[in-house]
Amino acid sequence: MLQPGRLMVLALALLAIWSVWWLRRLQTTPARGPAATAHRIDYTMESFAVTAMDADGKPLYRMFADGMTHYADDDSSEFSHPHVEYIVKNSTQMHLSGEQGWMAAQGSEIHLLGAVRMDGYAKQPFTLLTRDVIFKPDDSLVETAAAAVLTSGGMHVSAIGVRVHINQKSVQLLAKVQGRYDAPSH
User: Computed from CA positions of residues 15, 17, 19, 22, in that sequence, does the dihedral angle turn out positive or negative?
Assistant: First the structure.
C-alpha cells in the first residue's frame, strides 16, 4: 500500500507529464478559425499564358504554366511547371523554366522553385542549371543562392550562387567557382 506522501508525489509527477504532453499538443495543433483560412484561393487556371507590360506598354516578359492558383488575401500566385521569357526590345533575352513557381503581388518577384533551367545570352549563349531562382523583372535580375552549373561553348563552370543582370548581359558567379574549358578538336 502506498503512503499518502508517496501517493501525492506520484499524482504530481503524473500531472507534470500530462501538462508537458498538453503543451506540446497545443504547439503542434494547427490553428482553427479565420487565421487558419486567411490564405484562400479565389481562382485557378490550367494551361495559361500571360504577357506583362513595362511602364511604356511594351512586353516585359511572358509566362506560360501548366496551372496557376491565385490567392485573394495577398494577391500571390503559385504555378506548376512555369516557363518565363524575358523580353528586351521585342526580342527574348532569357528563358527560365522551373518545376514550381510563386509570384508576389503585382509580379514584382517570380520564384522558380525546384530544378531550374536558364537559357540566355551574355557575351555568348549560355545554359545555367540550378535550383530555386528569384526573377525580378523590373530590375532585369535573376539570382540564386544554390549550386549552379553554367555551360557556354566549351566552358563548364560550377559555382554556389549566381546573379544574372539581363540588360547588362553579365553573369556573376558568387562563390566556390570551378571551371574547365574543352577546346574544340580540329
Answer: negative
